[in-house]
Amino acid sequence: WAKAYAITQIINLDPKLREYKRTMFKDKEFIVDTDVLLNCLTTNARYSDVYKSMISILRSCNCKFYIPQQVFHEVCDHADAAIKRCGFYGEASLREFTDLMLEGEDGNVFIEDYVKQVRRIPENSDMRFKDYISNIYSNEYPELLKENIKNIFGERVFDNRIDESDVDAALLDDLTSKLYNMIVYTHKGSFRADDAKRIVMQTIRGA
């Protein structure tokens, strides 16, 4: 993803590289992680534009995307957490949050997107959070979120599977361990329960 991000940003600066992008990324396959998915589902979050632009370019190169169920459930958990946080703080208090608070390690992408949207778009200044989130997610109707995701990544994003037949097992174990330590031992990761940490491990391995 880091390589994809860097190259797509360079391509955006120089249209002459369009043919290069087709060669570099043509028919590649990507597993979408939680951070990428969250930012693609929003419009005003810190990384929304850059991730959406990256996905758009990759789709134009006929790339395939796969979203594991664990990632989908993490996004649902993130949306549920946003709803609870709004209930705890209240909309008026949330609107007083600074960008630093919204974008910090304890931030929530849906809260960040909502607050920035009501600040930046005059016609949305009176929008309620429940109306905002209801366009993205409903815990009573998970198909709503899936449809929003398909609109961004393609109809088969939940059906695609990455071929792991040629993946070296020792290399996979080494990378899994390193990624697990990078994710779990962050500030947010320290608040995850053991069950949630196991889900992270399963997500990394694509189980």
Give keywords.
single chain; 207 residues; mainly alpha; two-stranded parallel sheet; 3% strand; globular
Task: Describe what you observe in this structure.
This protein is an all-alpha fold and 207 residues long. Helices cover 61% and strands 3% of the residues. It has 12 helices and 2 strands. It has helices at 2-13, 18-25, 34-40, 48-60, 69-89, 91-94, 99-103, 109-120, 129-134, 143-153, 169-184, 194-205; strands at 29-31, 64-66. It has a two-stranded parallel ribbon with strand order 1-2. Helix 1 (2-13) packs across helix 4 (48-60) and helix 3 crosses helix 4. The two termini are 19 Å apart.
Question: What's the helix and strand layout?
Answer:
Blueprint: H1 2-13, H2 18-25, E1 29-31, H3 34-40, H4 48-60, E2 64-66, H5 69-89, H6 91-94, H7 99-103, H8 109-120, H9 129-134, H10 143-153, H11 169-184, H12 194-205
Short précis:
The chain is mainly alpha-helical.
Largest sheet: 2 strands, parallel
First and last CA, distance = 19 Å
Q: State the strand order across the main sheet.
A: 1-2
Number of strands: 2
In terms of DSSP E residues, the strand content is under 5%
Radius of gyration: 18 Å
- How much helix is in the residues? 55-70%
Uncertain stretches: none
Number of helices: 12
- Name the structural class: mainly alpha
Order of helical and strand elements: HHEHHEHHHHHHHH
